[in-house]
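pasting for ref
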Amino acid sequence: MNIGRLYWYLQRYSALYFLGFVIYIEYLFLTDSFSFDYLDSNLQFKILLTLFILLANVHGFIGLWTVGTDYLTKRTLGFLSEGLGGVANTIRKFYEILFITVGCFITVLYFLIIWF
């Protein structure tokens, strides 16, 4: 299996998990089982939410990486300006480092909120 197919499957299956998680949350609301106490005390919910956050990072990484590799190239940026075309790889790497750093920061922040 090549990496492109793996990314495609990861993004599609993570979207299906998101749908299932939202349906689960709606079920909790409709049955009046949802409360902040439930969020804090239910281990199953914490694990499902942790998986949701990890899959959201994977989903977002694949999407943003695709945007970067499609639109931050020498050809596309060079169309706007020759100077931008010359530094397209640097711009793309900075873009990747930025969204990876922000994604890691937000993930750690969410894990601290959920588990501590």
